[in-house]
Amino acid sequence: MTVLMNILQTVQILAAIGMIGLILMQHGKGADAGAAFGGGAGSASLFGATGGANFLSRTTALLAAVFLVCTLGLAYFGNLRPAAPSGSVLEGAVIPSPAAAPAAAPAPADAAPATGAAQIPGK
């Protein structure tokens, strides 16, 4: 079970890093307005005028699906508990006996209780 959890966690981390990189490479919605005024070279991109947006968005969606499946798998396998043989968790608990507890030291009979002015140190 531990090996499966480690594999799921590794795939989830790689999917998260991939999504971060792909999201940072994509253009925002406001990038089209800047390209209308001559700020962008749409036909000179690696994937063509609109091919990059389709490729990057589809790859991001695929990595998001992988991330979601890994998250659900980690949540499911993380909550699995081995069956308890005795049925109760408290049956194996160790309860200390009252005789083993240290007794408090008795106060001297002639000592006055420390209240009020007895608690204030002298100057």
Furnish the topology, listing elements before pairings.
Elements: H1 2-25, H2 31-36, H3 51-78
Helix pairs in contact: 1-3
Task: Summarize the model shown.
This protein is an all-alpha fold. It is built from three helices and no strands.
Multimeric organization: single chain
Order of helices and strands: HHH
Biggest sheet statistics: none
- Unreliable residue stretches: none
Averaged pLDDT: 76
Strand pairing plus helix content: what structural class? Answer: mainly alpha
- Note the gap between the termini: 68 Å
What general form does the structure show? Answer: elongated
What Rg do the Cα atoms give? Answer: 34 Å
Number of DSSP helices? 3
Helix coverage percent: 40-55%
Query: Could you tell me the number of beta strands?
Result: 0
Estimate what percentage of residues fall within beta strands.
under 5%
Walk me through this protein's architecture.
The structure is a single chain. The model has no long low-confidence stretch (mean pLDDT 76). The radius of gyration is 34 Å and the shape is elongated. It has 123 residues and is mainly alpha-helical. The chain has a domain at 11-27 and 49-81. The longest helix has 28 residues, at 51-78. It has 3 helices and no strands.
Notable traits:
single chain; mainly alpha; 123 residues
